[in-house]
Amino acid sequence: MNTSSDRTLLKQLLDLSDSIDQSRGMQREAPTPDERDRLGHLAEVKIQEVARLLRNLDHEGPLHHLLRRYRLGPQHVLILLGLLKRRLHHEDPFVTGRELVSTLFDSSFTILDGVRLLSPGSRLIQAQLIFPDLSKADEDMEILDLRFRLSDRAFRILCRVLKRNLSGLKRGAEQEARPYKSNLAYVMDLRRLSQLYQKRAAKIFHYEEWDDFEAGFPESITLLNREIMRTSALVRARLEQTEGKERFPLHEIATRFGLAEDHLVVLVTLIFQELTQGNPYLDAVDLLKLVSRSEEDLVRRRKLFSRSSPLLRHGLVALDEIVHDKEICGEVYVPNSVIETILGGHPVKDSEIDADSRIDFHKFLSDLDDSEDFFKNL
Hints:
This protein is mostly helical.
């Protein structure tokens, strides 16, 4: 596999795509018909150059395989590249069909003919290389008004051409890792990780975020997953570089009670929910969605707030408003002592009353009618 040749081809195609975009943009703004014709001809010459490159493929590689397998012509390739550039330069990866087609064609007839490239039976759609956004579409919406995005699979193939892979995330994290100067710096990194988790969960499970996000968070689930992996690797790398990390209260709690990253994300999310919103409670089911990557993952992690969970067993979180003894239907909060430990450094101890006893006692109190019953039952 000659990946270097694929890299060269991709660069040539992207350069031509940029040049075509520029010519079409200038053509639309040209003051005279002659100037518009000249710029239109220049764009057509560049499109023919794309066709020449595709005809002369003489090597093997991910890009070559993609083009040959689906018999993609210059117009298909330019649509793919247009969506790739959109994904690279904007948080919103979608482009309208009208924008995509108008880059390739400049007359009403050719634009009309170009609609076939985005129709449900087109090669790009059938090969699942691009996807229309049907979430807000109705049966009367024209293809030109639909929004399209590059598929995650096509994006991965194009990234492979550049030898970008997930192993690079770890190397990158190690290179930029700096030791933590304080427990608070560690907590704030986990805070950002928890926000990325929340943004992803809101996209996957279609609910409104309960947090306010700073600018710069990706909108694509794929990009969010990549950023979660990068941030997680960076946190681990920074901890490894930190001398005396055993004195960080949150790290000490995680080590002593065997907490995983999911548990830490839940704790930090709840703490900042109380600090920023003035409300210490979040529904257990929403926190379960927070750390799940799919509905199947949701099923696998359903015991996150069971009585045997390290979070409940050690009293790091507590449940309230439990319905029919179903923990997943309760509301979760972090006790004050645990918050003070994580943020203030006071030592935390295993709860003297375990989670089962607290739940049983809460049920006992709710079943009482008056003080006389209390003393009889006691």
